[in-house]
Structures are given as structure tokens and as C-alpha cells.
Amino acid sequence: MHIPWCVRKCPYCDFNSHEAGNALDESAYIAALMADLEQELELNSQRELQSIFFGGGTPSLFSAESINNIIEGISRKTSLAPDIEISFEANPGTFEQQKFSDYKSAGINRLSIGIQSFNDDKLHRLGRIHDGNEAIKAIDAAYAAGFDNINLDLMFGLPTQSMEAAVEDVELACKFQPAHISHYQLTIESNTYFHKHTPVLPATDTIWDMQQRCHDILNKHEYMQYEVSAFSKAGKQCRHNINYWNFGDYIGIGAGAHGKLTDINSPSIQRRWKQRQPATYIKHAMLGDSCSGANKLDQADIVFEFLMNALRLRQGFTYELFEQRTGITTEQLLKDCKKVDPELLVATDTGLGTSQRGFDFLNDVLESLLASKK
Fold it and tell me: What secondary structure, in 3-state letters, does 9-64 show?
């Protein structure tokens, strides 16, 4: 469920997000979401939802009442798994204690807080609307509201960031003992302010050392790296994101949202995406036409996209999962992967994964796969 509004667009963000201003019509957007969902359920009516993820933008701009209305609307239209994971992204600059409590009462059971850094200077350079003290208050408020499944987002390789500053961020995050920590490098994406006005970033070797040092700290505090940027306590992996990485199906609801659907009768895999501009999305959704486009994947695309996702998992994947999710034989998979350096991509009797070096240089592995696809 994509909530596309923010207080202010961050200079590094390339997501479909828009500054909210004073004209945030929650009721109109909720009506569009429900209309969009009904259209999607025509293709997914027999499936039970295993997870819901409210992403943004900044979902915490919406009132708890609106979030409650969305969840209740979903439950009236389709079946939810008894143990469904409902994740919600929150910005420390938009939190209130009562709001967090009300989100939990609405059914949110996993909270993801966009800390990025606890350092005021780095937050300012990132264009964030909160400071380090507000970040700490938001974590305390989440615990006080009764959340016990909390993710903290942290970035490294920030403008002018030193090794010491990167380590301090991770050490402080670990002291709060969240269930999950997402730790990822700042990258300069096209169509962002930082792409046009690139800040001074640490040297490549320094960023590499930051990553290794921070990973060591996370391991010391018993956070298991199960994906390139994801670390969790035992049993606290993000189920929603694991579904992405295992090439599972998902419905994308909201302005600019993307979805992936397997038609087991064909069989075929289709990607679908929605109108990007909120006003245009609302208009089209209410007319029964929220989908902006769709694309049926060919076999080469399916293999590459599966690998692009599944190889992000530290444990790799089984051939059984590959055949189940793609409808393609293991023999074809291994044929497509034969040009990749065997010291980077390792095949066993039961599955495929990267070596430690391959995991560290996953982009090189994917570039080799992409070259073999052409």
C-alpha cells in the first residue's frame, strides 16, 4: 500500500513521492485505494494475504483512523492470514506518542522507523526533517506504544561521514535492541537532487571499510545478515521483503505502486504498475482503470529477475523454489549461469548461491548474468 506524500522530498530519494502541502485528502485517497484493490482482486481472488506493507512517501502522515479504515477495508474484501505481518513505515519527524499507540490498535504489528542517522549534521545534509534527539524519542515512543517488532533504517557512506560517525550510528541503534536493522549505503540515483548536485562522499575504500566494520558490530550484537542490507534477531526477518527476494507474487496498490502476478493456468508472469501522480491515480482508480501499464515477462527476463532478487539472500535458493516460482527447469537455469565465475556463483546439488566474495560483489555477478542474457 503506497502512501505517496512526504513533508519534504529528500535530495537522495528516487521513489514516487510528492510534497503534501496543505491539501492532503486522505478520504479521497482511501476510496481510490479500495477501488484499486477491488480491481486487483479480480485477478487474485483465491489468495490469502500473508503480509501488508505500508510504504512511502511517509505513511505516518496519515491519521491512525485512516490507516484503520484501510486495514478494515482490506479485510472486508479479501481473506487475511491469521498471523499476517502488517508493516508500517514511520518518519521520526511525523510521530506522536498517541499516534503510534493508535497505529498499533489499528492492526500494525511491525514498525519501520526511518532513522538514517543519529547525527544532526548528517541528517541535515540528507534533507531529513528530524534530528538525532527526535529519532531517539521516536524509538522510545514505539516501544512505549507496545511494538516489539521494530526495524530501524540506517544509511552509511553519507556526505563527509567518517568511520567513527558510521560506527556510532550502528552502535547506538544496537543499544535499542530492535528486532531488525536495515543498513544500506547511500547511492546517487538519477532524477534526484543529489544526482544534479552531487555532495562530497567518502572515498570508495572508506565506504567499504565502513560496511565491513559496521557488519562486524551488528554480528557482535547477534544481528544475522540474511540479505544484502537486512539484519535481524533470530526469527525476526521481514516476511514481506523475503517474499520479494524469493520472487513471490504481490499486489501493488496506490499511486506508482508495482505488482507481480503469476498466472498458474498459462503459466505466465506479469508485472503491473499504477498511475504515478496522486490526482491522476485517484481519478483513474475511481473509474476502474488504476493500472497504468503491464508487461508479461519472457523466459530470459524471468530467470534474470529471479536471480536478481534471490541472490540477495545470504543463503541463496533451492532449485525446487526456482522451478516452483518460474516454471523453468533447473537445467535451463544452470545453462544461463554457466558464464558466471564459479568462484562467485556456487552451485550445489540442491541449490544456487554466492560465495562470500560473490555476495560482497553481487553487482558484478548480476552484470555477468545480464551480459549472458543479451
Answer: CCCCCCCCCEECCCCCCHHHHHHHHHHHHHHHHHHHCCCCEEEEEEEECCHHHCCH
Burial tier of 7 (Cβ tally within 10 Å: 0-12, 13-18, 19+): middle
Give the H or E element holding residue 204. Answer: helix 204-220
- DSSP code string of 306-346: HHHHHTTBTT-EEHHHHHHHH---HHHHHHHHTTS-TTTEE
The pTM (predicted TM-score) of the whole model is: 0.94
Average pLDDT of the segment spanning 334-345:
90
Give the span between the Cα atoms of 338 and 368, in whole angstroms.
Answer: 10
- As for how many domains the chain has, the answer is 2
Answer for the pair 329, 323: CB distance below 8 angstroms, yes or no.
yes
Q: How many CB atoms lie within 10 A of CB 34?
A: 18
Does some domain include residue 336?
yes
Of 197, 218, 244, the one marking the end of a domain is 244
Q: Which strands, in side-by-side order, build the sheet including 345-347?
A: 317-318, 351-354, 345-347
Closest CA to 59 of 22, 120, 111: 111
What confidence tens digit (pLDDT) does each residue in 213-248 have? 999 999 999 999 999 999 999 999 999 999 999 999
